[in-house]
Design goal:
The protein is of the alpha/beta class and 195 residues long. The chain contains five helices and seven strands; from the N terminus they run βαβαβαββββαα. α4 crosses α5. The longest helix has 16 residues. It is globular.
Length: 195
C-alpha cells in the first residue's frame, strides 16, 4: 500500500525509512507529490501531527503518516516543546536552536537540566478519517553542557543520556531507533496497524 510521509525534514525521512522497513507500506515523502508543508498551528504534538497527516492525505488522496516531535525541558516549563524546530525564530537552524537553548540554561547545573524528547505519530486512512491511529513515545535525558557527536539532527548533540554516558548524536542509527522517542512511537504504531 502506498502511504505519504508528511514531512520535508531530511533527518526524519532517513529515520522513518529505516523504521518502515518492517511494514508492508510503500512510503513516499510528500515532496514527491509537491505537497507543501502544512501550517502547524495546533497547540499540542497530537494536533500538529493530525494537521500534517490530514493535509498530505487531502492533497494526494492517499493514506498519510505524520509525526510531530520536540524537546521539553522541565526547568523551562516544557519549552521549546511544539516550537522546537523554530525555537530561535523565523530562520531557525539546528545550530541556532541549540545555541538559544544552551543560553537559556547557562546557569543551570547538569542535574537540573531534565528533558525529554516527545514524539506523536499519526496514521490517517483518508483526510476525513474519524479514528486516526495515534502512537506516542517519550525519551528521557538531560540537556548537555556542550554539543557532542555528529549523528542525528535537531537537538541530538545536546540530548545527554546518563545511563549511556553519551549524547543522542553519539549513538549509531540502529541503536538510536531502538530507544528513541520516535522508535518507541513507531513500534506502538506498527503494533496497532498489524493485522
Amino acid at each position: 500500500m502506498k502511504v505519504i510521509l508528511a514531512t520535508s525534514n531530511e533527518g526524519k525521512l532517513k529515520e522513518f525509512k529505516r523504521l518502515f522497513l518492517n511494514l508492508d507500506f510503500d512510503v513516499e515523502p510528500q515532496s514527491k507529490f509537491n505537497v507543501p508543508d502544512a501550517v502547524e498551528d495546533g497547540l499540542s504534538f497530537i494536533e500538529n501531527a493530525l494537521i500534517k497527516a490530514r493535509h498530505a492525505s487531502k492533497l494526494t488522496g492517499l493514506p498519510a503518516i505524520a509525526d510531530d516531535s520536540g524537546l521539553e525541558v522541565d526547568c523551562l516549563n516544557g519549552a521549546p516543546g511544539i516550537y522546537s524546530s523554530r525555537f530561535s525564530g523565523k530562520n531557525s537552524t539546528d545550530e541556532k536552536n541549540i545555541s538559544k537553548l544552551l543560553s537559556a540554561l547557562v546557569s543551570t547545573p547538569l542535574s537540573e537540566r531534565i528533558a525529554r524528547f516527545q514524539c506523536v505519530i499519526v496514521y490517517m486512512r483518508h483526510p476525513e478519517d474519524p479514528t486516526p491511529v495515534i502512537a506516542q513515545g517519550a525519551w528521557k535525558g538531560l540537556v548537555a553542557l556542550n554539543p557532542q557527536g555528529d549523528h542525528g539532527f535537531g537537538y541530538d548533540p545536546v540530548f545527554y543520556l546518563p545511563e549511556l554516558k553519551c549524547t543522542s548524536a553519539e549513538l549509531g542509527q540502529e541503536e538510536k531507533n531502538k530507544i528513541s522517542h520516535r522508535g518507541i512511537a513507531m513500534t506502538k504504531l506498527i503494533q496497532q496497524l498489524s493485522p
